[in-house]
Known about the structure:
The protein is of the alpha+beta class and 186 residues long. It is built from four helices and nine strands. The protein has helices at residues 3-25, 40-49, 51-58, 168-185, and strands spanning 37-39, 62-74, 80-86, 96-101, 110-113, 119-125, 131-139, 143-154, 157-165. The strands form two sheets. It has a five-stranded mixed beta barrel with strand order 2-3-4-9-8. Strands 5-6-7 form a three-stranded antiparallel beta sheet, with no helix packed on it. β6 and β7 (131-139) form a beta hairpin. α2 (40-49) crosses α3 (51-58).
Amino acid sequence: MATIPKLLSFFLLFCIAIPLVAQDAAPVLKPLNKRGVVKLKTIAGDFAANEVAAIAKYSGHRITVIGRVAHLSQGSSENKVLVVTLQDAAASLPAVKGDFLTGSIPEYSGIEISQDGSSATLVQRDSTGRILGQKNFLNADSIIGLKGNYKELKVGNVILTDCKIIPKERLHELRDELEKKQSSVN
């Protein structure tokens, strides 16, 4: 009769220990830096390695992701004017999709996407709708800094909202800063 409590104790200990061992096996993610700047490879790798920890790391933060533009598409709602997809050339890791909302471009303007999704043009208009000018806004394969609020992980893609593009001069500063930090760690 004394063996039943021992077996029950062993069973309870086993049930508690297995989840703890499994938790320890999950990769630990490096914390987000003070500026919230991260390379595409890092954020995509975080979500590929440990989705739960990555959601905890990025939730509630406005972050800047530095990476390659893989595709551009028109927004799917009235408030969304553009979706920029950042992904490595091999498409081997999760993508980061940045939603640009109506207020992210000048008033009365619009974004036109090429048929193949490789370029976006900003079409500036006056209050009557007359075109004032057009300028290249983004191109596929370019490296950009995409700043936005982490929203969710949806169908394997990291979604940022209320996005904007970091100016090129600032992008160079942020990239250099990341490189210096990374080389000092190694």
